[in-house]
Amino acid sequence: MGCNASYNNNSHVRTITIVGLESSGKSNITFHLVATNATNYVALPTAGVDFHELQLSSSTFHIYDCGGISRYRTQWPYYIQKSDGVVFVIDRTDKERMGRVQEEIADVLIMCEKLNLPILIFINKSDINTTLTTEDFIKITKADNYDVEYTIQDCSAKTGDGINSGRDWLLQHIHPRNAGAKRSKSASKEVSESKKSQSRITKSQERSENDSDKRKRNNESYEEDELESEISN
């Protein structure tokens, strides 16, 4: 697919994990991301995880489309932990399961906060009129309660509307996180090396002080022996 955004990836492979309840439109959205003509595509429910690859200029993106039924949701953390960015898809017409959506996205947001991952929240089926607004989904997801970079994007897996905009936002927000992670690792390494060096200096000082104490005790013992020898003579 064509893309006008500049990602500056330096030919690095990035990984994106897509999650959400079953029948929310994850697979159709994924197909829009990786295919040139997805208008007539009809996806079957994902059994486990489907893998896709997206090529943009010199950059490669690995996409994991995770199944949404209950027995497959336990796999989500495994793939999220290996990701550079996360997509959570919500079916705006599925009002009966909004409680379940709240529970599942809360767990995902906690992981994103812990791993410093950006998250794109797709509100699918914008082509169908509902009473729920974007502001309603901000309240439903409670994303503001977490220290994460996120955006909520209306989209239609049927027409493709909004999908490219969401994709561009996510791919642009992947890089600052990775750069920050590299800086953090580098800083942690420097701190670790500094602590090790300080520990070596401290141990060296302790050994020097111990040796000095030993020499002092030996000298005192020698002087006492000399004094006793003089008295006995």
UniProtKB/TrEMBL annotation:
Q: Where does GTP bind?
A: G20, L21, E22, S23, S24, G25, K26, S27, G68, N124, K125, S126, D127
Q: Which UniProt keywords apply?
A: GTP-binding, Magnesium, Metal-binding, Nucleotide-binding
InterPro entries in UniProt:
ARL2/3 (IPR044612), P-loop_NTPase (IPR027417), Small_GTP-bd (IPR005225), Small_GTPase_ARF/SAR (IPR006689)
Listed binding positions for Mg(2+) are: S27, T46
Q: Where is the composition biased (Basic and acidic residues)?
A: 187-196, 203-220
Q: Name one GO molecular function term.
A: GTPase activity
* Acidic residues bias spans: 221-233
Positions of the UniProt region annotated as Disordered: 178-233
Question: What Gene3D superfamilies does this protein map onto?
Answer: P-loop containing nucleotide triphosphate hydrolases (3.40.50.300)
List, alphabetically, the NCBIfam families matched. small_GTP (TIGR00231)
* Family affiliation: Belongs to the small GTPase superfamily. Arf family.
- Protein's UniProt name: ADP-ribosylation factor-like protein 14
- Per the UniProt record, the source organism is Tritrichomonas foetus
